[in-house]
Amino acid sequence: MKSKVLIIIFFFGCFALKAQHSEIKLKEYSFSEVESLQKSNPKPLFIFIYTDWCKICEGMKKTTFKNDKVISLLNKHFYFIKLNGEEKKDITFFSKTFVYKPSGNKTGTHQLAKELASIEGKISYPTTTILNSKFEIDVQVDSFINSKKIKKILESYLNH
Fold this sequence. Notes:
- A hairpin with a 2-residue loop joins strand 3 and strand 4.
- 21% of the residues are buried.
- By secondary structure, this protein is α+β, with helices and mostly antiparallel strands.
- The radius of gyration is 20 Å and the shape is globular.
- The chain has one domain: 3-Layer(aba) Sandwich (Glutaredoxin).
- Helices cover 41% and strands 23% of the residues.
- A four-stranded mixed sheet has the order 2-1-7-8, with helices on both faces. Strands 3-4 form a two-stranded antiparallel ribbon.
């Protein structure tokens, strides 16, 4: 009887501990928010350029950007922005309005995605771009990046 009580207490204790663990949330910003935040608290911008149909992009969202260490680094040292490369809404950034440019029947690319994700004139998804506080491209990686590799990229960038 005593062992059954201990087992029950143990299980409830595990559930209580699990319930108390608070998940760290990745703070996301818009381009207009970042533009005004830069004036008072300049930080590099970490921009994740993706599409809705990209399975690799979805994989990064579900793994890389769920890692507590990655989230902590991004929240503390960067402004994190997600940009859908096929976004249809206009985005004003740096006093310039970027628009969606159709390239065929139900296809196209947002001008801002083209600016931030083009490497040697081509865009691939996902592309991760880091802009310095002057909005200049410092880093571009056009592939899946796991949490271990992205942590190294972020730490290296911060230590340069």
